[in-house]
Prior knowledge:
With about 220 residues, this protein is an all-alpha fold. The chain contains twelve helices and no strands. The mean pLDDT is about 95.
Amino acid sequence: xxxxxxxxxxxxxxxxxxxxxxxxxxxxxxxxxxxxxxxxxxxxxxxxxxxxxxxxxxxxxxxxxxxxxxxxxxxxxxxxxxxxxxxxxxxxxxxxxxxxxxxxxxxxxxxxxxxxxxxxxxxxxxxxxxxxxxxxxxxxxxxxxxxxxxxxxxxxxxxxxxxxxxxxxxxxxxxxxxxxxxxxxxxxxxxxxxxxxxxxxxxxxxxxxxxxxxxx
DNA sequence: TACCAGGTCCTCG
DNA sequence: CGAGGACATGGT
Length: 216
């Protein structure tokens, strides 16, 4: 199985995905937390709720003020805003943990001075942010070459006979097989999500129509 | 109706 | 460690 061939095949099939959707880095971070084990459609509802209340910026300007505004919300209010995403009790805490971290570290610009390893370690030490969310923020917010492994990716690899021990092993497996290129990382992760949603479904995979069934 | 979704944490062995 | 359960709403 050649992962690079798979990447090119998927890019050709689905087209460029241009992830991560959102008007600002702050929005991407919050979206990455909210989407944990839920549907992106649910996240869109929550993001709309934030924007209606003027709690998220439409560009990168003054994002720390917006971060502070969200942080200052009472938990019950924040819960109400993110309710459509499910798991709101834990996600409220995760969002606040992250915002506290962002504000205390004086924003993305300061954090961006850290090395890849330092930054990832800091992100992952925030309660509620695990491997995948940390990598999503690394890649789509800080533009670091840190490949994001979703459950879709693991399922797809397993169905192609790749059975590894844990998240980091899957991450390393992919990273050593494709060019260390930010845009490739961004697109490939998004494309694998499309494969998962459209073909590599949990219960009834549609392998006959899958663009990468050639590599099975 | 059940099951699934762009996970993470906690508890037990 | 690693397996297994809890967390919760919305769509099919």
